[in-house]
Design brief:
single chain; 9 helices; Double Stranded RNA Binding Domain; alpha/beta; 13 strands; 3 domains; D-Maltodextrin-Binding Protein, domain 2; 5-stranded mixed sheet
């Protein structure tokens, strides 16, 4: 009997990243592959306290893993899809998108169960410009502060008094099983990041095991929905740190419905729209063009101008 094909799976070293990688490794082992999980340190982990707005690289969470793929040190890189730039390095492709967890954001707070219930001028922590902008749109009185660190580190910082409340992805909380009181923020209040809740398996394009990896990990409805989201973001020319939110869903088994939003950093200007169709990329690109024509181009241009100054 021939030995099982061997796969080296690369991941970041945070508890959440390791939990996500082990979930994927388990599915690959069930498919008959031998898997080694290898930790690769990324730019974000080399600068753990630097605000993400300063680390303005679209591949801040993925670059070192991509380089390890291209050098042949790992066979598969497991990313949170929301961290993956819409333009991939030459020679790398997303072989699979895993079944998506609830993509919603969550409010961790002891002072209010919803955004509306938070007391006046509550201090809310987030490292996301998208979350900041949408929070300020609904509650311009809130005091938004930046926070860095892994999910459990951010929760600890808030408990130690860094802020009164914290917003982060529900999927991360659930994957870690953390003991934190939270409520789900509905999409009419806050649209999630593009790809939030799904994992991506990146590989070199011509890898011999690409089809096997895809068969073991890919969830087609999640892939279709997030392809529309990523097409919207790519057309908006946005990186991971722009005030853009999106939520795609497969409807009627074949069509993709997409809701998208662009918000000015101060929350004052909001451009929101939806689209539906059978081709995910067409749906995403069409919605992006509509938002740009309605004025979103001004918001995104101002954000880029501030970043480059």
């Amino acid at each position: 009997m021939s030995p099982a094909p061997s796969v080296v799976l690369g991941t970041r070293g945070s508890r959440l990243a390791l939990a996500q990688a082990e979930t994927c490794a388990g599915k690959l082992r069930e498919a008959g592959l031998s898997v080694e999980v290898r930790v690769i340190k990324t730019t974000s982990e080399q600068h753990p306290e630097t605000p993400l707005s300063v680390l303005d690289q679209r591949d801040v969470f993925t670059r070192q893993l991509d380089e390890a793929l291209l050098r042949g040190e790992i066979d598969v890189a497991i990313h949170s899809l929301k961290d993956v730039p819409t333009d991939l390095p030459d020679g790398i492709a997303l072989a699979a998108i895993t079944e998506r967890h609830d993509p919603s954001d969550a409010l961790v707070s002891e002072v209010g169960s919803t955004i509306e219930d938070l007391p006046n001028e509550t201090i809310v922590a987030t490292s996301s410009l998208r979350r900041r902008a949408q929070l300020l749109h609904h509650r311009p009185d809130l005091q938004i502060v930046d926070i860095r660190g892994n999910v459990d580190t951010r929760i600890r910082k808030v408990r130690e008094g860094a802020a009164d409340a914290l917003v982060l992805a529900r999927a991360g909380l659930e994957r870690l099983g953390l003991d934190a009181t939270y409520t789900v923020i509905p999409p009419e209040v806050m649209l999630p990041a593009v790809g939030q809740g799904a994992l991506a398996a990146a590989m070199i394009e011509d890898h011999a095991l690409r089809d096997e990896i895809r068969a073991a990990l890919n969830h087609e409805p999640s892939a279709l929905a997030t392809r529309a989201e990523r097409a919207m973001l790519r057309t908006l020319e946005g990186g991971c740190r722009v005030p853009v939110g999106a939520l795609g869903r497969v409807v009627n088994d074949t069509d993709v419905w997409l809701l998208g939003i662009v918000v000015s950093p101060d929350g004052a200007l909001v451009y929101r729209g939806e689209a539906v169709g059978s081709e995910p990329e067409e749906v995403g690109e069409g919605l992006a063009r509509e938002l740009l024509e309605r004025g979103a181009a001004i918001v995104l241009g101002e954000v880029r101008e501030v970043r480059s100054s």
